[in-house]
Design brief:
By secondary structure, the protein is of the alpha/beta class. It is 34% helix and 14% strand.
Length: 277
Amino acid sequence: MSPNYVVVPQWQGSVSPRAMRLVDGAEAIQGDLPSSVTFPVDVPAEAGDALDTGIHRFSALLTVRDRQLAVLRAGSEPVLTIGGDCGVSFGAVEHASRRHPGDIALVWFDAHPDLHTSESSQSGGFGGMVLRAILGDGVDGLALDADARLSPDRVVLAGVRDIDPAEDVYITEQGIPLVPVEDFGTPAAVVAAVKRTGAAHVYVHIDLDVLDPATIVGLSNIYPFGLAVEGLTAAITALRAEFSLAGATIAGFAPSSPEAAIDDLPSILRIISAITR
């Protein structure tokens, strides 16, 4: 895979007190990417308005989505999107889905399922709603339409371990498979789950909080008992061996300082290598 890299230093989808660090994280990763195939998206500095949607900073999120899609459409496939918060996967998966209609499975490597709607979310942060929006549920402008949305039977939740009650109900009702951290001794479980979707292409979303916080320090959200880098990269490598890669996202890097970013970058570059080699 010789990817294009699209860097989206969006912070508006996060409600973490560390949200602004996501900009620094995206820029730190960008510094180690080949400049000739790296395309930054201009993210507005302002927070934006909810506009009575129940989604904090909704207007800014719409602006970023439009700008991100413009960059994606101008480039070539495949694309590795670098966030920013998890909301950057919304436009990235939309783009990939339109390129491969009806033939994408989405593996959601994340500590959280991000399956809230504006009605069920207590925080109002789009980062906690983005997967549900990819499935077509949400507010106009931040919910995929029938031509691009994925169906729940094409989603695999991997390493998810912090599930709110409303999300749990939805996961159970829709029968979305979960591959827990303890099943990552080998990649077999996640590969088998994707095979059951019937899709030939896979999109890989990685929120770095899927990793154990002992493995990586610069996280915007911290939840214990996550994956080791070795388990994550082995799973990515196995998925790439079995499926065509429709695209990928790395999100959630929020270093506390440039020095702290340097400490975490080797682990992040190992993940990038697993996606792109």
